[in-house]
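Inputs:
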Amino acid sequence: MTAAGTSGLLERHIAFLEALRAAGLPVSLAEDLDAIAALTALSWDDRALVREGYAATLVKRRAQRPTFDALFDLYFPRLVGDGGLGLDGTPGGSDAETSPDGDADGPDAPDGPDAAGEGVRDNAAALTDFRERLLDALLAGDDDALARMAAEMVGRFGAMPGRGPGLSSWSAYTALQRVAPGELVDKIVAGLVAGGRGDEEADRAAAQRIGAFTRTVEADARRRIGEEKGPDHVASVAMRPTIDRLDFLSMRRADLEEMRREIHPLARRLASRLTQEHHARRRGPLDFRRTVRASMSTGGVPLTTHHKPRRPHRTELVVLCDVSGSVAHFAQFTLLLVFALRDQFQAVRAFTFVDDVHEVTPYFRPGADLVDVMGDLAASAAHAARFGRTNYGRALTRFAEEHPDALGPRSSLLVLGDARSNYADLRLDVLRELTAGIRHSWWLNPEHRRHWDTGDSAASRYGEVVPMVECRNLTQLGEFVHQVL
Amino acid sequence: MTSSWFSSPAQAVERLAAAGYLADAPTATTSYLAGALEKPLLVEGPAGVGKTELAKAVARACDAELVRLQCYEGLDEARALYEWNYKKQLLRIQASQGAQEGAQEWSATHDDIFTDEFLLTRPLLTAIRREEPTVLLIDEVDKTDVEVEGLLLEVLSDFQVTIPELGTVTAVRRPFVVLSSNASRELSEAVKRRCLYLHLDYPDAEREREIVSSQVPGLDDRGAEQLVAMVGRMRELELKKAPSIAESVDWARTLIALEIRDLDDKAVTDTLGVVLKHASDHDRAVRELRLRA
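Outputs:
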């Protein structure tokens, strides 16, 4: 380990671990030592091996793997600078020969990056040439070549020269705008179809390759910035939280899909945890007959006692959710989770509102398809709005008028929303009346606690009537549901 | 102690392949590390991607015996570790009393009935006491109660079991431990910290084709390619249960049995039940893949 100490490897290793911890991975000292032991057992000359060694010892959850990969790329970059020579030992020019017009490109590939540093190679001709080569590489689906092209692309077209050393930067956005790989889709599809693939298949393959290339470019920009400013800087600025810690209110479209895939596993985990816990508490009154019968095998001595199972208590749940633009996603995910867990309840009814109330229970048929349900829910949001501006007071009044039978002494009420009512009358009296005769009530607020009561938020005023809980991400949602059941 | 498992990740790939398990680079590397560092290996992933099969393949590749502990809800010490054969102990006491009235002292009887003869070893203890190479598979560890995890801690970190009457039994030769989990419950940090972690996922198209061809020799290349492409498309859909490798292999066997050569829309629709096990998944697949229902 002394060699590592002098070469700065140990420092890099520790900085990497610190970054992982900062990103929310619980890396203990024991795992740290395991990682060192694993790396000693592996050979250092293969980057993929080092990565797997680290991953096996440090990453113990599936959801953390993307974070780990991004940080690993930052702290142990594939190449340094414009990298004529990759760390994995493949010289930059060698693969160009495998492409059909490799002879033409081979010679200028190595000197291109050097020139790019001075910023003179970024001109229209270079752009056209680069796009042609990119098209070839995308058509061939050659990952190594694409990784090199991504590095070249960021270096050439994404450079933002600074006034001095340490001030220059790189932008994946600029590079992607200039090269616009998205415009190549049609050509790739045409090329793939000519290569004997079906239309649909070609479409999918093209979209996949462009997407992968875009991610590579983004990673390369991070790597370069990390080199310039130190990985710690990038790790703290450019890393996104893992999907289960991502705020409902700051989701992008791609996140929506990923999160939807998480709903069912989460529901299954919660359900199995609940069954286990119920079983642990199920020792009811003594079952005399079974105990005596079992004692026969031990000569009449009742060594083990048997108990009757305890009847599980199940609640009727009424969910009332705000589906106005800002919080719609939160409401949808919570509804999906609640209905995925429906067998844990006696009955579930769901209502959506903006300034009017609409019952959505029928959309959740048992075994229905998630994507369809989400579509129906979005379409039905129109029924829940009369003037289109969120009005909690009006919605509550309408709910009390239209569905007086929904809440009974055995039911529990769950309200979902940010409690922002556009300064309208809150009708606290109606809410108080609604919650008076029922078993439980909760209010889930997707906003951070520090934003409560800012602007038109009436969080604490509603919170006095119905206990309000902060619920910003899937983890918090899962914890809440578990606690309630 | 000799770590006779694998000598390098590359060799792990080779020997696992010889045992009929096509491992990808992460799997091979992690298996090699589990052998080299003598740490348990926790394998997580969706059902049917070959978690249990990995343990069996390691056992075959290294000529080791497989000891399997199938976990289930309510599993306890007596089923996992060891148990005293109290019926036999009772008989022993009664026999000694019947033979010579009060001849034998209680302390002698006591020493007599807490010996190896009356000990029923269960998988964990068996694996630790074995002197030959052993692969210990703790299957579906997420199904157990939290208390069993506590029980595993001593076994997993020190490879020893403490029996109050006999003392501590330490492993002569550390077994290769594989824990498999479907992640239906989050395992405790204490267990995870002691293990190496491997997440097995659906393989890429090429590897899956190799797996299917090696498992179902009768399938020709074109059929395998079509099948794997179709399964790949199904995994991209949002299904309740995406088809895993086990389902691909089943499907391939079905096609052979029905003598279907060409996997066209009709053939897919007819045999969809082999791959997709939910009614809503069926509907979605038929709609999205534009099959004729």
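Remarks. The domain at 9-75+131-199 of chain B is CATH 3.40.50.300 (Rossmann fold). The interface with chain A takes residues 9, 25-26, 29-30, 32-33, 36-37, 39, 42, 44, 73-74, 90, 145, 183-186, 189, 192-199, 229, 233, 236, 238, 240, 278-281, 283-284 of chain B (CB under 8 Å).
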